[in-house]
Amino acid sequence: MENFVKLLTNDKEIRIFMVEATNLLARSNLKVMKTDVARQLYTNFFINCCLLRGFLTEVDQRIMVNLRFKPTGHVAYGDVTNRGNVNCTFSPQLVFFAGDYTDLVGEGTSLSITRVNWRGGMFTGTVELKSASVDACFSDFYTESEQTKTIFRTWIARGVARGCLVQPLPSCRSERLQFVLDNIDRAQKDLVTVQWAELPSSVFSYATVVEEYSLHSECSCSKEGFIAFLMSVETAELKKLIEAGEDVELECGRCGKKYIFTTNDLEAVVDKQRKPEPD
Question: In CA terms, which of 37, 81, 152, 187 is 20 to 30 Å from 122?
């Protein structure tokens, strides 16, 4: 069953993304967190990253998230692909964090979000933040970086974890946005108790489902992806590795999976570099 829904209000003024993340979290790195505080932070961060899937419209797009807190080394990473793969990891310092959220924020806290399109390039936005919650970090980023008011909400209760993103379109009236936000606030109990399949019609009767997706809690790394990285390495450097006659091991910085490239693999990359791009 699809666990991500995009809705558009019937007046076409506001888009709404909803995610059911309960099962996704069960298969995520949540189990690696060592404290209750870290588990709560991870849950909020993961749900917000899932919601970013709604912004991906092309097959080869992905979004990478880097939330750096004030204390050195306390970093959260997220990776979301158009294919629905979502992977989030915390630095060791954050995995063991047991303090208050207020200890994490302040001068030096920033959120970077990178949109990658392998044909169109890469764009990174970074915003310094002093937000009062993880949800507010994401909301404040889009308000400041994209100049677009965007509201992120997460709910974790009764063993259910869900999230919502609300973003007004340029034609949206302020009173209409307030109506939607007030409606969501009033429906908080329903948002974690109503069956997922019934949620759009039950809570968002004033909106229409326009798309549905299936998200997966896993890293989207692949050997092919690392080959694309090797294609960007200078040919002379690759030739040195080939001449050394040793296998090259590359490790995914997200999930830790390791990929081995033999000299034959590297020679194939060099051959591809030599071939001109087709017109």
Answer: 152
